[in-house]
Amino acid sequence: MVAALPLAMPSYVAAYAWLTFVPGLHGYWGTVLVLTLVSAPYVTLPVAAVLRRADTDVEDVARTLGMGPTRAAVATLLPQVLPAATAGALLAALYALSDFGAPALMRHQVFTYGIQHAYKIGFDRTLAAVMALVLAAMALAVVLGERLFRGRAERRGASGSGGVPAPPRSLGRGLPVALALLGIVAVATLGVPAAALAVQSAESLSTGVVWDELGGAAAQTVALSAAGAALTVLLALPIGILAGRFRGRVAASIESASYLGNAIPGIVVGLALVFLTINLLPGLYQTSVALAAAYAVMFLPKAVGAVRTGVQQVPRDVEEAARVLGRGPVRVWATVTARIASPGIAAGALLVMLTAMKELPATLMLRPIGVETLATELWSKSAVGSYGAAAPYAVSLVLVAALPAYLLSRPGTERGAAS
C-alpha cells in the first residue's frame, strides 16, 4: 500500500510541501525530485507484481551451474522484470512530459508551462500550438522507443515463465540496509508532504473551515472523475482488445497513437475542447460531458494498457473451447474473456479515476459553471497565497484519492494499473 500512496499525491501538492520545508528548492533539480517521487509507483507496482509471480526455477538452475546469487538473479529475473519496468517507465515519462503543476510551482521552464504562459499572458496561440506539436513528437519518440525495447525484452524473457513462484526469501544481513532505503523513500514521498499538510491544516483549523464547500468539492471530485473513468474505459476497450489479441503494424500503430493523449498538456486539451464546443457543439460547453471527454483524451493510455494486459491473460484455448461449444463471439467475450480480464480492466478504471481527481488545467477550463473540485479549490486558494485555507482541500484530495490508490496496491491489480 505504501508503494501506491504517492499516486494519490498530486504533483503540485508534493511540490508545495517540499517548498515549505526547503524554500530554495526551485528549478530543475526540485522539479526532477518531485516528479520522480510522484511517478515512481508507475514502475514499482508492476515490477513488484512480476517479482511476486516470477519463475525462480531458472534461477535455481543457474545457481547449480556455478553462478553466484547476484549474477543468477540478474541473468534470470531481470529479463522477466524488464517488460513491466519499461511499460511503467513509459507512463512515468509521459506523466513528466505533460505535468504542469510541479514545474510551475518550482518555477522551471518546461513546455507545459510555456504553453500555459503563451495562452494566458501573450495570447499567442500559434506559438502554443507549435510547442504542443513538439511535445507530442517527444511523446511519440518515447512510445516508439518503449515499444521497441519492450519487444526485445519480452523475447528475452519468454522462457522465464511457467514455473511455480518461490516463497519470499530472507535478506539476512541486508535487511537493515533494505529497510533504511525504503524508509528514506517513504519519508521523501509521504512523510514530507504529510508533515507540511499537517502544519498548514493546523493553521487553517484555527481560522475556521467552510465544511459545506469542502464536502461539495469532494463530492464533485468523485462524480466527475468517475464519469471520466467510465468514458475512458469504454473507448479503450476496442483498442486494448486489438492490441492484446492481434500482432502487426496496424494494431501496434493504433495502440501507440493512443498514448499521445497522455503527453498532451491538460491546458492544450482543454483549450481544444473549448474551441470545439463553442464553435460546433455549444450545448456541451462547460459541461461534465466535455470534461469527461478531456479526461478520456488525456488518460486513454492508462485504460488501454490495462485492457491489453487483462486480455493477454485470457488463454486462447479457453476461448476456443467456448466457441467449439457453440457460443458466439459476443457471448464468448461476455462469459469468458471479460470475466477473466475484468480485474485488469477495473484496475485501469481506478487508475484513470485517480489521475482525473488530480487533473488541474483541463478541469479549470471545462468544469460546469459554479462547480468546484478539490483540485480547483486548492489551486485557486494557493494562487492568491492562502496556503492555510488551501490545506483542508489538499488533505481531502489526498484522502479521497487514497482509496483507489489502496485498491491498486492490492495483489492482482498492479499489473493492470501500470501496463
TrEMBL record:
Membrane topology: Multi-pass membrane protein
Subcellular location: Cell inner membrane; Cell membrane
CDD domains listed in its UniProt record: TM_PBP2
Protein keywords: Cell inner membrane, Cell membrane, Membrane, Transmembrane, Transmembrane helix, Transport
Keyword match Cell membrane: yes
GO CC terms: plasma membrane
Spans through the membrane: 27-51, 72-97, 127-149, 177-202, 222-244, 256-278, 290-311, 332-357, 390-409
Gene Ontology BP, a term: transmembrane transport
Limits of the ABC transmembrane type-1 domain: 1-144, 218-408
Classification via Gene3D superfamilies: MetI-like
Keyword hit for Protein biosynthesis: no
Family indicated by similarity: Belongs to the binding-protein-dependent transport system permease family.
Protein name: Iron(III) transport system permease protein
Lineage: Bacteria, Bacillati, Actinomycetota, Actinomycetes, Propionibacteriales
